[in-house]
Amino acid sequence: MASKSAARSKAMRAIQQGLFDRYDLIAAQRPKDHVDFDRVVMSKLRLVDAALDGFSQYEFTVSEDFSNLNDVMHGGAYGVVFDMATTSALNPLARPGFYFFLGGVTRTLNISYLRGVPIGTKVLLSSKVVQIGKKMAMIKGEMTSLDGKMVYATAEHHKVNAQPNSEHLKFRVPWDDEVEADMKREGVEKKAKVAKL
Protein backbone atom coordinates (compact mmCIF):
# COMPACT_ATOMS: atom_id res chain seq x y z
CA MET A 1 0.00 0.00 0.00
CA ALA A 2 1.28 3.44 -0.92
CA SER A 3 2.21 5.89 1.80
CA LYS A 4 -0.03 8.87 2.40
CA SER A 5 2.46 11.24 0.73
CA ALA A 6 2.84 8.90 -2.29
CA ALA A 7 -0.96 8.70 -2.62
CA ARG A 8 -1.24 12.50 -2.39
CA SER A 9 1.47 12.93 -4.99
CA LYS A 10 -0.30 10.50 -7.33
CA ALA A 11 -3.62 12.34 -6.90
CA MET A 12 -1.89 15.66 -7.61
CA ARG A 13 -0.42 14.18 -10.85
CA ALA A 14 -3.85 12.88 -11.84
CA ILE A 15 -5.19 16.42 -11.68
CA GLN A 16 -2.17 18.41 -12.85
CA GLN A 17 -1.17 16.16 -15.75
CA GLY A 18 -4.46 14.43 -16.50
CA LEU A 19 -6.50 17.62 -16.57
CA PHE A 20 -4.45 20.83 -16.55
CA ASP A 21 -1.47 19.80 -18.69
CA ARG A 22 -3.66 18.08 -21.30
CA TYR A 23 -5.99 21.09 -21.32
CA ASP A 24 -3.03 23.41 -21.94
CA LEU A 25 -1.85 21.28 -24.88
CA ILE A 26 -5.31 21.38 -26.44
CA ALA A 27 -5.87 25.08 -25.74
CA ALA A 28 -2.54 25.94 -27.37
CA GLN A 29 -4.06 24.77 -30.67
CA ARG A 30 -6.83 27.38 -30.46
CA PRO A 31 -6.52 30.71 -32.32
CA LYS A 32 -4.38 33.19 -30.34
CA ASP A 33 -7.27 35.63 -29.82
CA HIS A 34 -9.71 32.91 -28.69
CA VAL A 35 -10.39 32.94 -24.93
CA ASP A 36 -12.33 30.16 -23.22
CA PHE A 37 -13.97 30.89 -19.85
CA ASP A 38 -12.62 27.68 -18.37
CA ARG A 39 -9.06 28.39 -19.54
CA VAL A 40 -9.08 31.74 -17.73
CA VAL A 41 -10.24 30.03 -14.54
CA MET A 42 -7.77 27.16 -14.86
CA SER A 43 -4.88 29.59 -15.30
CA LYS A 44 -5.75 31.12 -11.92
CA LEU A 45 -6.42 27.97 -9.87
CA ARG A 46 -3.44 26.86 -7.76
CA LEU A 47 -3.64 23.19 -6.77
CA VAL A 48 -2.69 22.78 -3.10
CA ASP A 49 -4.01 19.32 -2.21
CA ALA A 50 -5.62 16.21 -3.65
CA ALA A 51 -6.53 12.66 -2.65
CA LEU A 52 -7.06 9.45 -4.59
CA ASP A 53 -10.60 9.03 -3.21
CA GLY A 54 -11.78 12.04 -5.26
CA PHE A 55 -10.69 15.23 -3.54
CA SER A 56 -9.12 18.43 -4.83
CA GLN A 57 -8.28 21.74 -3.20
CA TYR A 58 -7.17 25.03 -4.71
CA GLU A 59 -6.27 28.54 -3.77
CA PHE A 60 -7.88 31.10 -6.05
CA THR A 61 -7.63 34.90 -6.00
CA VAL A 62 -10.79 36.66 -7.11
CA SER A 63 -9.50 39.22 -9.61
CA GLU A 64 -11.32 42.11 -11.30
CA ASP A 65 -12.18 40.01 -14.35
CA PHE A 66 -14.53 37.99 -12.08
CA SER A 67 -16.24 41.03 -10.56
CA ASN A 68 -19.56 42.81 -10.84
CA LEU A 69 -20.37 46.51 -10.30
CA ASN A 70 -20.47 45.97 -6.54
CA ASP A 71 -16.78 44.95 -6.57
CA VAL A 72 -17.53 41.43 -5.44
CA MET A 73 -17.36 38.18 -7.36
CA HIS A 74 -20.09 37.95 -10.01
CA GLY A 75 -22.61 35.15 -9.45
CA GLY A 76 -22.01 33.74 -12.92
CA ALA A 77 -18.26 33.58 -12.31
CA TYR A 78 -18.87 31.21 -9.40
CA GLY A 79 -20.39 28.78 -11.91
CA VAL A 80 -17.28 28.47 -14.07
CA VAL A 81 -14.98 28.36 -11.04
CA PHE A 82 -16.99 25.64 -9.29
CA ASP A 83 -17.46 23.73 -12.55
CA MET A 84 -13.71 23.38 -13.10
CA ALA A 85 -12.73 22.89 -9.45
CA THR A 86 -15.33 20.22 -8.70
CA THR A 87 -14.79 18.40 -12.00
CA SER A 88 -11.10 18.03 -11.18
CA ALA A 89 -11.94 15.95 -8.09
CA LEU A 90 -12.99 13.17 -10.48
CA ASN A 91 -9.53 12.94 -12.08
CA PRO A 92 -7.90 10.66 -9.47
CA LEU A 93 -10.79 8.20 -10.02
CA ALA A 94 -10.96 8.52 -13.80
CA ARG A 95 -9.93 5.90 -16.35
CA PRO A 96 -10.43 5.77 -20.13
CA GLY A 97 -14.19 5.52 -20.65
CA PHE A 98 -14.84 6.46 -17.00
CA TYR A 99 -14.99 10.24 -16.39
CA PHE A 100 -11.75 10.65 -18.32
CA PHE A 101 -10.18 14.09 -18.88
CA LEU A 102 -13.00 16.59 -18.26
CA GLY A 103 -15.13 14.15 -16.30
CA GLY A 104 -18.11 13.93 -18.63
CA VAL A 105 -20.75 16.63 -18.91
CA THR A 106 -22.58 18.67 -16.32
CA ARG A 107 -26.15 17.63 -15.58
CA THR A 108 -26.78 20.19 -12.85
CA LEU A 109 -24.65 22.67 -10.95
CA ASN A 110 -26.40 24.15 -7.94
CA ILE A 111 -24.68 26.98 -6.10
CA SER A 112 -25.66 28.50 -2.77
CA TYR A 113 -24.31 32.03 -2.45
CA LEU A 114 -23.75 32.69 1.24
CA ARG A 115 -21.57 35.81 1.29
CA GLY A 116 -20.05 38.18 -1.26
CA VAL A 117 -16.35 37.71 -2.04
CA PRO A 118 -14.59 41.08 -2.36
CA ILE A 119 -12.25 41.54 -5.32
CA GLY A 120 -8.67 40.71 -4.37
CA THR A 121 -9.68 38.04 -1.84
CA LYS A 122 -7.81 34.74 -1.93
CA VAL A 123 -10.18 31.83 -1.29
CA LEU A 124 -9.88 28.11 -0.74
CA LEU A 125 -11.89 25.83 -3.04
CA SER A 126 -12.42 22.29 -1.74
CA SER A 127 -14.17 19.58 -3.77
CA LYS A 128 -15.08 16.03 -2.79
CA VAL A 129 -16.67 13.25 -4.85
CA VAL A 130 -19.66 12.10 -2.83
CA GLN A 131 -20.95 9.45 -5.24
CA ILE A 132 -19.62 7.97 -8.45
CA GLY A 133 -21.24 5.32 -10.62
CA LYS A 134 -20.97 4.09 -14.19
CA LYS A 135 -23.19 6.87 -15.54
CA MET A 136 -23.52 9.59 -12.90
CA ALA A 137 -21.38 11.28 -10.27
CA MET A 138 -22.01 13.93 -7.65
CA ILE A 139 -19.36 16.25 -6.25
CA LYS A 140 -19.70 18.78 -3.45
CA GLY A 141 -17.71 21.99 -3.45
CA GLU A 142 -17.09 24.71 -0.95
CA MET A 143 -15.49 28.15 -1.28
CA THR A 144 -14.12 29.44 2.01
CA SER A 145 -11.63 31.86 3.48
CA LEU A 146 -8.10 30.40 3.60
CA ASP A 147 -8.53 29.51 7.27
CA GLY A 148 -11.89 27.85 6.54
CA LYS A 149 -13.75 29.99 9.06
CA MET A 150 -15.86 31.91 6.51
CA VAL A 151 -17.91 30.05 3.90
CA TYR A 152 -18.63 32.14 0.81
CA ALA A 153 -20.51 29.57 -1.28
CA THR A 154 -21.24 25.88 -1.64
CA ALA A 155 -21.94 23.83 -4.75
CA GLU A 156 -23.48 20.49 -5.67
CA HIS A 157 -22.31 19.32 -9.08
CA HIS A 158 -23.88 16.36 -10.88
CA LYS A 159 -21.92 14.93 -13.82
CA VAL A 160 -22.88 12.41 -16.49
CA ASN A 161 -20.10 10.11 -17.70
CA ALA A 162 -19.49 10.88 -21.38
CA GLN A 163 -16.67 10.19 -23.77
CA PRO A 164 -14.34 13.15 -24.23
CA ASN A 165 -13.84 14.64 -27.65
CA SER A 166 -11.73 12.06 -29.53
CA GLU A 167 -9.48 14.87 -30.81
CA HIS A 168 -8.62 15.75 -27.20
CA LEU A 169 -7.40 12.24 -26.48
CA LYS A 170 -4.71 12.57 -29.15
CA PHE A 171 -2.85 14.84 -26.74
CA ARG A 172 -1.01 12.47 -24.44
CA VAL A 173 0.51 13.40 -21.10
CA PRO A 174 2.71 11.33 -18.72
CA TRP A 175 -0.36 10.59 -16.61
CA ASP A 176 -1.74 8.44 -19.47
CA ASP A 177 1.20 6.04 -19.15
CA GLU A 178 0.65 5.79 -15.39
CA VAL A 179 -3.07 5.07 -15.81
CA GLU A 180 -2.38 2.40 -18.44
CA ALA A 181 0.22 0.74 -16.18
CA ASP A 182 -2.26 0.78 -13.26
CA MET A 183 -5.00 -0.74 -15.41
CA LYS A 184 -2.66 -3.47 -16.63
CA ARG A 185 -1.52 -4.24 -13.06
CA GLU A 186 -5.14 -4.31 -11.82
CA GLY A 187 -6.05 -6.71 -14.65
CA VAL A 188 -3.19 -9.06 -13.73
CA GLU A 189 -4.13 -8.91 -10.03
CA LYS A 190 -7.79 -9.60 -10.84
CA LYS A 191 -6.86 -12.63 -12.99
CA ALA A 192 -4.60 -13.96 -10.22
CA LYS A 193 -7.39 -13.53 -7.66
CA VAL A 194 -9.90 -15.38 -9.87
CA ALA A 195 -7.37 -18.17 -10.50
CA LYS A 196 -7.02 -18.69 -6.72
CA LEU A 197 -10.77 -19.18 -6.35
Q: Under the CATH scheme, which architecture would be assigned?
A: Roll
CATH class: Alpha Beta
* Count of strand segments: 6
- Would you tell me the overall average pLDDT? 93
- Spatial arrangement of strands, main beta sheet: 1-2-4-5-6-3
Structural class: alpha+beta
Rounded to an integer, what's the Rg over CA atoms?
18 Å
As a percent range, the share of strand residues is 25-35%
Major beta sheet summary: 6 strands, antiparallel
Organism: Phyllosticta capitalensis
Domain Thioesterase: 72-149
InterPro entries: ACOT13, HotDog_dom_sf, Thioestr_dom
Family: Belongs to the thioesterase PaaI family.
Task: Describe the model.
The chain is α+β, with helices and mostly antiparallel strands. The protein has one domain: Thiol Ester Dehydrase, Chain A, CATH 3.10.129.10. It has helices at residues 4-27, 37-44, 75-88, 174-196, and strands at 46-51, 55-61, 105-113, 122-132, 136-145, 151-160. The protein has a six-stranded antiparallel beta sheet. Strand 4 (122-132) and strand 5 (136-145) form a beta hairpin. The chain is globular, with a radius of gyration of 18 Å. Residues 72-149 form the Thioesterase domain.
Note the topology.
Blueprint (H helix, E strand, L loop, with lengths): L3 H24 L9 H8 L1 E6 L3 E7 L13 H14 L16 E9 L8 E11 L3 E10 L5 E10 L13 H23 L1
Helix pairs in contact: 2-3
List its salient traits:
197 residues; alpha+beta; Thiol Ester Dehydrase, Chain A; 6-stranded antiparallel sheet; 4 helices; 6 strands; 35% helix; globular
Task: Kindly summarize this structure in a few lines.
It holds the Pfam family 4HBT. The chain is built from four helices and six strands; from the N terminus they run H-H-E-E-H-E-E-E-E-H.
